[in-house]
């Protein structure tokens, strides 16, 4: 006797549930394996993150489809429906398991983002404490300062006497190349004038650090007599226009010279200087 059309349709719905159930067993196992790969300590490739999210969506869609079919069978086609208690229990467990695994997965990602953000903040705070960041406001100048300090023995330029500083052609084996920081402080009008007149070389830097202060960096690629360098800035101070400026020169021979709280001691020295005075310190 031919089956009732409603019975045949109910059986087709039952087959759909079984088909989804069979696929879910494999998908949930794969999903579990992928989620276990994600830990707070290890880097998670982006393709795994994408795959977990896509797989979770597919599992959820299949569970939603099964639930909708079950409701239909328990309602309109109830007389043809024979529940499989063991299978229903497994389907329910699939739902709980994948939901818990996915929640843990997303939580770990948030942890990793928080840790990465914290690390960036810590690096940023450390950078702000570094001497180049304290000496210059400009990010570009900070980068040049760090670069010149790091690759001091690799720098070269064509015009080593643009400032009027004679640098010996003979390169010494040790401490032949070094940096000199300079600071000029005085009334804003005087600083404006000096700023417009100073001409530096390729690897040197000057910055209007404040209304009453100029800061700069001189990169010496050959031995420079400190007395000669002082004479250059002394000539600036001897000018009637600039006689009230303070000038501080700081010799840097190694990155180690900038370790510790050097900035505060330099600032204190400058604050205590009298107008019209020039001083050279080596740290």
Brief summary:
This protein has helices spanning 5-37, 46-75, 85-129, 131-135, 139-150, 188-197, 226-238, 262-272, and strands spanning 178-185, 205-210, 213-220, 246-252, 278-282. It has 283 residues and is α+β, with helices and mostly antiparallel strands. Helix 2 packs antiparallel against helix 3 (85-129).
Describe the structure.
- The chain is of the alpha+beta class and 283 residues long.
- Helix content is 56%, strand content 12%.
- The chain has a five-stranded mixed beta sheet, with helices on both faces.
- Helix 8 links the parallel strand 4 and strand 5.
- Helix 1 (5-37) packs antiparallel against helix 2 and helix 1 (5-37) packs parallel to helix 3.
- The longest helix has 45 residues, at 85-129.
- It is rod-shaped and about 115 Å long.
